[in-house]
Amino acid sequence: MLRETVRALAEAKIAPFAAQVDEEGRFPQEALDALLGADLHAVHVPETYGGAGADALATVLVIEEVARVCGSSSLIPAVNKLGSMPVVLSGGEELKHTYLGALARGEGMFSYCLSEPEAGSDAAGMKTRAVRDGDHWVLNGVKRWITNAGVSEYYTVMAVTDPAKRSKGISAFVVEKGDEGVSFGAPEKKLGIKGSPTREVYLDNVRIPASRMIGAEGTGFATAMRTLDHTRVTIAAQALGIAQGALDYAKQYVTERKQFGKPIGDFQGVQFMLADMAMKLEAARQLTYSAAAKSEREDRDLTFHGAAAKCFASDIAMDVTVDAVQLLGGYGYTRDYPVERMMRDAKITQIYEGTNQVQRIVMARNLP
Ligand code: CAA
Q1: Whose CA is nearest to atom 49 of ligand 1?
Q2: In whole angstroms, what is the distance from residue 363 CA to residue 229 CA?
Q3: What is the pLDDT of residues 247-272, one digit of tens each?
Q4: Coil, helix or strand for 71?
Q5: CA–CA dist 2, 77 (Å, integer)
Q6: Taking the alpha carbons of 31, 32, 35, 41 in that order, is the dihedral positive or negative?
Q7: DSSP state of 10
């Protein structure tokens, strides 16, 4: 029922703008309005804090169905979860009521600030500093590759509070867009997900109350990694959705396109391609849904399964979208058809929330 509801909403209110959003590189406000109107913008927020209280699998379904029509728009529910998960996992009650409540009410979106210009895969090598000053913390530094930066109101920022301790000297904070000293870089010019702004976040003597620290001092890196355990599953969901959109389009196309006197879908070479695409996608879906169940239960082996789902589903999304372009031939290579956009959008799922090489490090360190 949830899938049908989100699919109908996505097709009616998000799909019509997907090509334009990509072409113009503009934020999909129509998608945000539609998701807010249906209370689907941040379904993971627990009911205690005014949210829909959707479990991890339901959240995956929402992201998957939005991604099926527009990869950029699926980053609204996905990054709202990524940005706010540190608060869900480690925040005190007051912080949860304030920020999860605001997110659930649609007062602002959440972004996640871990990466820096010189600290991507080596996240613990970050330089952004937070220094205690009475009952405040003062933050200075640059965060890079921040999804939805500028359009989000709230930012989870990981910063060094004790440089001598590397990962154990990192703490997490909530920073607001309106805090003095917060500003943003120019939007990155990207290959895909062009509707979702990716910008640097500059923190210039940003003074925030100590109550905005998420969890205890020194636990920020562990919180950031625990967050990714859960949200790599949502990137897998985005990958599934993008791939499903491309497969659905190609499946229909081959029944209409005629060559040699019959629909190209009648040729076994084309049928075999579609069979392989659907088979791989279904395998990725099962891995993702099982990882979602582990996320919901916070199973001990979530770290492996979250990384495996993200790695496998994103690789499959790339394969499937490339094959969809191939099935449409020259038409697939043009912007008159949606599959080249889907192929460009799929690529990032192999890179963000940890490259697929990092996923293999994570899996190898956490073999089941
Ligand atoms: N759960 C809980 N704690 C964890 C953990 C986990 N999954 N993983 C690590 N930790 C904690 C542990 O306490 C560990 O300490 P112990 O030695 O006591 O166990 C501590 O963190 C340090 O862990 P590591 O020694 O494993 O740290 P490392 O420096 O070797 O790094 C890494 C490991 C896996 C490579 C990590 O740096 C990593 O995941 N890198 C990729 C970062 C990433 O995914 N960035 C994406 C940013 S989000 C994004 O893409 C933006 C967007 O907007 C979409």
Answers
A1: 353
A2: 11
A3: 999 999 999 999 999 999 999 999 99
A4: helix
A5: 15
A6: positive
A7: I
Question: Up-side HSE of residue 136: CA atoms within 13 Å toward CB?
Answer: 9
Strand ranges (E), 222-321? 258-259, 262-263
Given the cut 0.95, state whether the ipTM is greater than it. Answer: yes
User: What pLDDT, on the 0 to 100 scale, is given for residue 64?
Assistant: 98
**Angstrom distance (rounded) from CA 285 to CA 119:** 31
Q: What's the rounded Cα separation, in Å, for the pair 147 and 198?
A: 5
C-alpha of 161 from chain center: 27
CA of 156 to the centre of ligand 1 (A): 16
Element (DSSP H or E) covering residue 309: helix 302-332
SS3 at position 228: helix
d(C-alpha 149, C-alpha 146), whole Å: 5
Residue with tokens 């998957």: 64
Q: How many whole angstroms separate alpha carbon 365 and alpha carbon 225?
A: 13
Question: Cα dihedral angle (349, 354, 360, 363), rounded to 10 degrees?
Answer: -110
Q: Supply 47's token pair.
A: 């009911």
CA end-to-end span of the chain: 33
pTM score of the predicted model: 0.98
CA–CA dist 41, 14 (Å, integer): 13
CB 49 within 8 A of CB 84: no
Q: Quick one: 141 exposed, middle or buried, by C-beta within 10 A (0-12, 13-18, 19+)? A: buried
Which residue ranges have their beta carbon within 6 Å of ligand 1? 79, 82, 112, 114-115, 121-124, 145-147, 167, 221-222, 225-226, 228-229, 303, 352-354, 358, 361-362
DSSP letter for 266, please.
Answer: G
Mean pLDDT of 233-241: 98
